[in-house]
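Priority: medium. Attachment 1 of 2:
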């Protein structure tokens, strides 16, 4: 059973979430931000359902903290309608999806299933030795062997291009800001310029397009950054 941590301070909402999810998932609950962080120190989860407005530590801060250490746990944020502009903020700090309150529980369940499916679908596959990011025969990235095949053809990437693409591809559909990409891929003693990120992305795109004309694996999210795009139509 997949494990879900629900972080929600409203008792009524928490109870409803539990009732709707407990048949399919192992549910853990935290009623405030600090408790959530304490639980996260001890346990790992497949999905965190994270309310934004919480006592002590906000959902944003929790999301940020989780992402600093772990790129794999899926995070679905719950936000109030009045906080809609926070959508971008949620994605910017590494949430995988968000839902605006009030929402239908069927919608919530569908979103969770979609997140888990998406994740399974592109999950790092481990063979005897190597880890792969694999997508429908179109895209195959051997992370340890540092090789990329798109449309059955090998693509040569520079070290930085490979690091950048493997970070994005290992976290499909998650939006990374240019700042975060710079932080994660570039060393402290290297020239740290956001335009460097853009030019590397541009080069990767050119290389991908050479073997697969209408590819849009790396998508620009305007005003935020980039994400590795896996849409149904790229299957
Ligand atoms: Ca709340």
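Attachment 2 of 2:
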């Amino acid at each position: 059973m997949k494990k879900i941590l629900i972080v929600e301070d409203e008792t009524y909402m928490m109870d409803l979430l539990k009732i709707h999810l407990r048949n399919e998932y192992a549910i853990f609950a935290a009623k405030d931000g600090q408790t959530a962080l304490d639980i996260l120190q001890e346990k790992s989860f497949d999905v965190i359902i994270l309310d934004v407005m919480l006592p002590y530590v906000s959902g944003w801060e929790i999301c940020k903290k989780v992402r600093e250490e772990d790129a794999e746990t899926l995070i679905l944020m719950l936000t109030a309608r009045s906080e809609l502009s926070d959508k971008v903020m949620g994605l910017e700090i590494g949430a995988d999806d968000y839902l605006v309150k009030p929402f239908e529980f069927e919608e919530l369940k569908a979103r969770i299933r979609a997140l888990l499916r998406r994740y399974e679908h592109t999950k790092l596959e481990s063979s005897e030795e190597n880890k792969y990011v694999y997508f429908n025969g179109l895209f195959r990235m051997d992370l340890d062997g540092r090789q990329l095949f798109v449309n059955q053809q090998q693509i040569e990437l520079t070290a930085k291009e490979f690091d950048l693409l493997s970070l994005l591809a290992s976290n499909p559909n998650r939006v990374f800001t240019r700042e975060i990409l710079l932080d994660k891929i570039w060393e402290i003693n290297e020239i740290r310029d956001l335009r460097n990120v853009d030019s590397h992305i541009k080069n990767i795109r050119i290389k991908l397009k050479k073997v697969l004309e209408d590819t849009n694996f790396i998508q620009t999210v305007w005003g935020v950054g980039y994400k590795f795009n896996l849409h149904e139509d790229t299957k």
